[in-house]
Structures are given as C-alpha cells and as structure tokens.
Amino acid sequence: MTPAADPLVAVRGLSVTFPDRTGDVRAVRDVDYDLARGEVLGIVGESGSGKSAAALAVMGLLPAGARVEGSVRLDGEELIGLEDRALSRLRGRRIAMVFQDPLSALTPVYRIGQQVAEAVQAHNRLSRDEARSRAVELLELVGIAGARERAGAFPHELSGGMRQRVMIAMAIANDPDVLIADEPTTALDVTIQAQVLEVLRTAREATGAAMIVITHDLGVVAGFADRVAVMYAGRLVEQGGVDDVYERPRMPYTMGLLGSIPRVDESGRRPLVPIEGAPPSPAHLPPGCPFAPRCPLVFERCHEEEPALAAVGGRPQLAACHRAAEIEAGGLAPEEVYEVRSSAPAPGAERRNGRPQVLRTEDLVKHHPLLRGAVFKRQVGTVRAVDGISLTVGEGETLGLVGESGCGKTTALLEILELTRPQGGRVVVLGRDTAELDARERRALRREVQVVFQDPLASLDPRLPVSDVLAEPLRTHGVARERVEERVRELVRLVGLEHQHLSRYPQHFSGGQRQRIAIARALALEPKLVVLDEPVSALDVSIRAGVVNLLEELRERLGLSYLFVAHDLSVVRHVSDRVAVMYLGRLVEVGDVDRLYGGPAHPYTQALLSAIPVPDPRKERTRARILLPGDLPSPAEVPGGCRFHTRCPKFAALDAERRRRCLEEEPELRAVGPGQEAACHYAERLAVV
Amino acid sequence: MSVPTEQVIGRLADQRPGGGPPLDETRVPSRWGVVLRRFLGRRLALAGLVVLAGLFVLAFVGPYLTPWTYTDKDYAAFLSGPSADHWFGTTQTGGDVYALTVRGMQKSLIIGLLVALFSTGLAAIVGSFAGYFGGWVDRTLMWMVELLLVLPAFLLVAILSPLFRGRTWLLFVVLLAAFLWMVTARIVRGMTISLREREYVLAARYMGLSGPRIIFRHILPNISSLLIIDATLNVSAAIIAETGLSYFGFGVQPPDVSLGTLIADGTTSAVTFPWLFGFAAGLLVLIVLSVNLVGDGLRDALDPTSGA
Prior knowledge:
The structure holds 2 protein chains of 2 kinds. In chain A, 34% of the residues lie in helices and 21% in strands. By secondary structure, chain A is of the alpha/beta class. In chain A, the strands form 4 sheets. An 8-stranded mixed sheet of chain A has the order 6-7-8-3-9-10-12-11. In chain A, strands 18-19-20-15-21-22-24-23 form an 8-stranded mixed sheet, with helices on both faces. Chain B has a single domain (44-66, 98-302), classed as MetI-like fold, CATH 1.10.3720. Chain B is globular and about 75 Å long.
C-alpha cells in the first residue's frame, strides 16, 4: 500500500511547540506522512510522544499558545494558518475526530439524539425533523439498539462503550473524508473495545473515509491499520506497512516496544524485553537521537546527530536510525538487539501439589445495600459485588484474577485484605481463619499479606520522602532502628533504585520507578503473600515490561505468592500459574494458565480471550472474534439462573429446551479436564487465540 | 529507571550482612530531616524567623533599655512626639509609649501564637478524627462543633466572665482559642473524608497502622497547607479579638496593656497624634508578616510539589 501520487492528506515538516517559562516544549518535531484515500494509518506512541498533539494540529484544535509550523494539505488545500472560521467549515464535514474520553466529549445536559442532530445540522441545511431522523439512522448504524428511544437519553445514562458509539456516530454524521480516532478504546474494557473497533470498521465501510488511529496499544492497530507510524519524543521514528513494521522492525525503539508486550497467544515464560530508562521530557531533549540514552545499539554518532527517516531494505518502510542498515543486513530480531537473560525454568502446575496454601477463600460474599432517600434511608436493592467466590493460592504460586471493570475483583481483594470476618463465607490466610483473629493476631498477620495498588502515585503518600515510605511498615511492626535503616537500603537495591533516591518525594519519580517503590514497600516486612491490584496497567508499555520482570524475579528469589488482579489478560498469562475469571461477582472459570488460555471452556472466557488484539497483523486478520452483545449488567440487578445468559453467544444458539437450564439453574464450577473448571452447563473447550 | 534484573541480583550477591561500605556512608534521611533541610533552604522563611525572634527579644529585653516603666507617668510631657527622652512619644496621661508598646507586645506575641497553635491544633484533631472514623465519633464531634458555632461567643463570655475574673491570663488564651477553631474543624473533616479513600491511606491500614497514627502521619501532613494558612491568620485574629474581650473585663486589664488595647486606644488619634497608633500597629503588622513568612516557608518545606 504505497502512498498514492496525490495523497488525501499530506503532512510535511509538522512541528508543534508549546512555549513555556522554563523553555519551549517541542511536542511534535518535523513530522511527515501521507494518508491515501480509504487508508488506515495507525500512529503508535507512548504517553508524551506527541501523537495526540500531532493529530490536534491537523484539526487546528490546539490551544492558542501553541506554535504550529509546517504544512498539512487536505486534497491540496493548506490547513495550517487557516482561520478558525475556514477550519470550522472543514471540521466535521471533511475531517472528523473521535476522542478518547467519550464522557467529557459529550455535553452532559443535552440528549444524545440532539447532539448527533446538531452535528448533522452544522454542515447541512436540514429541518429539525430531518436532522433528527438522520441522527437515529446514524445511531442505528453504530449499533445502538432501539436507537429511536435511546436518542432521548442523556450521556450519563449510557455506558462508556455506548458513549463511544455516539461519538463515532457524530464523527461520521457528515460523511467525512478523514476520520481521526485518538485512543478510541483506551478507556474501555476488552470486550467493549472489540465492539467499538467493529463499529469503527463499519463506520469506515459506510463512509469510505481514510482513518488515522492514534493509540499506545500495538495490538489494536495490528489488525486494523494498513500502515503504521511509530512516534517517539515528538518524531516519527519508523513508518511502513503493518506487516513490514511488525515483522521486520528496523528502529530499536519499535523493536523494544514489540518485545516488551506480553502476548496472549504465547505460552511459556519468555522474559519480556524491557527498554531501560524513561522517555525524555519534550522540554529537555538530549542532543542527537532522542532514543540514544535507552538504546542498546547506541554508538558515538547517535549522541551527535539525530537520524532522519530513511528507507530501509527497498521496502516502503522508513526508519530513523543510524544503524538501520546494519539491522536490516543482519536481520536482527528484538531478542538479539536487547540482550535477554534466559528465564528460570517455567514453574509448571505440578509445583502446587503438596504445597501449603497461603490463601483460601470459601464462598466469599460482599453485598452493599442500595439506599434511597435523604432523611429516611430505605433499602431499595442490593449490589452483589462479590457473590460467593472460592479460590486458593498455593505457596510460591501466582493466581491471576481477571475480569472486566465492575466485576467485583477489586472488592474481593479489599475484602481479603481487611482480614476480618467477611460478610459471608470464609477467608483463610496461612491456615488461619480471619474470623477468629483478635486485634493483635490480625496485626501480626498483616506482616504476611501486603498489597501493591494500581496507581503508584496515589498509593504513595506525596508528603513522605521515599526513605520514610519504605521505613513505615518496618517501624509500624516495631523493627529496631538500626535494622530499619539497613533494610531500607536493601529494599532500594532490591527493586533496582539508587541510594540517592531516598531523600526524594514520590512525585520526583517516573511511573515505573514509583511502582518499584510501592513494590519495595510491600516487600519490606518479607510477606508471604502479595496482593497486586493491576500493578502495571497505569504504566507505559515500555516500562511495564521492566516491572513485570521485576515481579517475576522477586517471586522466584523470595518465594512469594501473588494474587494478581488485572483486566489485561496478556499480562496475566505472562505472570500467572493459574487463572480465575470473574464475571458479575462470581468465578466462571478457573484453571492452569496454559489449559485455560489454550482452550477456554466458558463462553465468557472465550469471548474475553478472542477480544484481545494480538500484535501480529497476519494472525490478527485471520482471527475470528466472539463479540458479546451489550454491556456488563449492573451488579444490583444480577440476572437469574446463569448470570451470563443475557450476553452469552452459546445461550443464543441453544434450543428452548436446553435454554431453560441456563435460565433456572445457576451453574457451579465443574471440572472440564485436568486442572480446569468452568461454571457453564454446556462447557466445551475451544481454542480462540 | 529500570535496572536490568541481573544487575540487581549481582549487587545482592555482593552484599554482605550489614551492607557494603560505599553505600552505607550516607545516612537514610528521615522525613523531618528532609523537611528541616528544605525549610532552612528558604531565605524568606529564615528572614521571618529572625524577625520574629527579634520581636521576642524586643518584647522581653526592651523594657530594660529605658528608664521608664509602663506604669510610670511623665507629668512634664503629655502627648509629646518621639524624642530622645521618650523614644515613641508619650500618651495623654504622660505614659511612655515605648514602654507601653514593648509591654503590650509581650502579651500579644504570646497570646497570638498560643491561640493560633491551640485553635488550629484543636481544629485539626477534632476535624480529622471526625472525618477519619466517621460513625458516632463523627456525629458527636460535629454536634459539638455546631453547638459552639450557633452559641453567640459574646454571650458565653459575658456569662463566664465572673468565673474567670482575676485568674491567670492563660485561661484567656484557652477561651479565645475555643471560639476560633470550629469552621476550620469542619473544613478539615471534609478534607479528611476525601483523603481517607486514598490508596496510600488504604496501604497504611493494610500495613497494620492504627487509626490515630494514620491521621498524624498521613492525613494531617497532607492538609498542612490549610492548617498553616489557618494558623497564620489566627495569629492576627487572636491579637485583635483579645481587645474585644478586654471590654468584658478580663484578659488584659488596665493598667496592664496589650498591642490590642493600645491600638484600640490609639485609633481615634491615629491622624492627629500618629505615634499613639503607629508604633503599636506597625509592630502588629511586623508580627503578622513574619509569622506569615515562617508559615509560607513551612508550607513549602512540607509540600514536595513546591519546587526545590
């Protein structure tokens, strides 16, 4: 797919600078690309790489203070320097945008039908009724069931996935030539992400628009884009057809990105390839190649001269690296460029037999009453956040607990961490029933169970220097003063930080470093069990790998057990020995990691796994997705019988006779083979990745 | 800054019990050590501290520098301007304004600082305990706060004043503080409720930290900006409020004086005989200013987001 002779969009030398007291922030530097008619271009980059600023510059939507240079031509018409009025005529009609956060992109006080109709009327002389019926058509097109009624809904009445559909409907309202989607699925769960990507495909087919998809997720663009451009520190560092870039990356940064993501379709414990360091601040770019400080192939020239995008290997592929030719000639793979330590032998399922249990829950229940009324509160319902889950974590084992947001996994975890008598069921930690503990014993048991939260900035007290953050658990449990100092120093080294970091505050660190501090704090008391609540999902892709490797490393060295809660099934596959899948407060499937990923038996697990995009374009194009209809039901209104039947593709295919069982009887976890249990009346293993 | 894991292991392998020598040379810094270092690095805050110390010296050593005491009357000089004999001039009855002012400052400095400390401290403790523990603790404490808010302070003082007459003026400090803390306590409670849900507070709880220790270690430092601003405002509020209460016949009584009473007496002649008003008012401004500078410095030292 070479750029056509006259591209639809031609971007040349685009630069965006935000003037700042402390020095100009050069968010986008000298970006060139073409977009042909009907083509999908994926722009991939980490946060702060300038990918969004580059897109906003095309739309002329940057804040007034920003300085934009270069040229953006749409069908030969120059857009940079155009007045706002002239741009307004183009926006929506020829170029439309889908934003990341659909809640803040919709006006909360207008009905969605009105908002879509407004988008239609902005560029067409239509009567109100015409506009309204066109709005309903558009809402139908993006898959909103009962569009006529739903058009009267306010944005807050819709789920995130639905709002994103509305955004897409507004974007395609005027049949634009170019559709820019800025992280369209980042805020959404995987099954909803799959739905929204499907809608974007439909939208593209309906309008024939060319698309620019901006994302940090290499998986999303693999199956979606024709060409991909990788951005780093404000510049494009690699560009080419998806197959070329994914199979033969020629810029070490792209290689690192591809090597640093765990894959849902790969078994075994391939250690991830971490890229060292953190991306440079756009206000203080190093001279020469901005990636040089983190690059394993760096040599003198990289520090002196910034490489330009140049063709490699006679393909329509461009890479900005002084050593691209060498990489091309040697056919180097990411593993060869980044030296990878061979991992310890994979701990298999057999390890857990005979090992003592560190944690066991039996029918753990946590319900919240739903109250109404200001003065006299009356209960109008029950939120069944956790509705009877039983799981075990063996010594030295990692149990992955996965599920979409709202499934109750965090509630379950907090309930375990309380170490008190649960509302229902039992929690047994290291052989001790938490219901029978007195205050002193509970405190003693806290030493053995520690937690790492998702957002490392929120979980570290901003007013405590790192030394105090690490010393706090030790002091709390009465460790002698000299020993505290010694242990703090040990911990800092254990997680790969420097001693001089101790007197700094958490905010002075990058995300990855903060998470290392949080991990060090959790390990201070040498616990047996560490509960990890989405420990890497707030981190950038290239930094994630380092933290994941550290966690694995520590588990093996210190004999820890992990309860690893996450929504990212790729990471879970990478770190877990066993996996438990949660849906609406209950476990639907539990199994050894390779059994479960190799052949999930519950239709929900199957849909979840099939929804995850794989960073492999060829594979991605041939994969069949199991799309789930609708959204996760509210835990306040749990469907009767099997609670998944409202969205279950298998249920939909059953005859009335067999359906009755799903409607009336709640399935229990039953073995579907060695080391795998599923809660489905008609469980069948099926390979989906 | 991700360090490859093999390096970490390598370093751990080298490490002997007790730690290797090069890494141990620097001490592990503690929180208050870091705060003190940051505070001392702020020139304006240090200047405020020096001025404040100077004012204390003036208040307590000052009376010995002049032959006049605050009760003496110079019948040869009524309402005379500043001169070599009477540095700050004299009053209508021939009192030495310098002697009166330094005497007044002794009281006002201590009243101002103590009241600010007491009322802000009380507000912080009541508000944070109510917010953190919730339930009946919250209800009881907030009921008390609201009761004090609706009761007219003047009325209460009028009723209580016969009881306190002739007692130590420290009681007066307590009484002043008791009427200043309620609004702040409510604000602190609100902030505590939002902080209580933060993950670092959760993390501390799961670490085994007790409620009061979480409040003092994690919650109060994170609302210290508010508390410091509140305390600095309270210093001037207390010094002024003290005059008001003096009308009710306790606190600072003639012939004793405070900056508050001096200012109140001097306002009427602020234009005609400026020395009666100017020196006392100027010193009050200086006190408040220096306390503000110290407060700002303390706030910045505690707040890691404030650069440096």
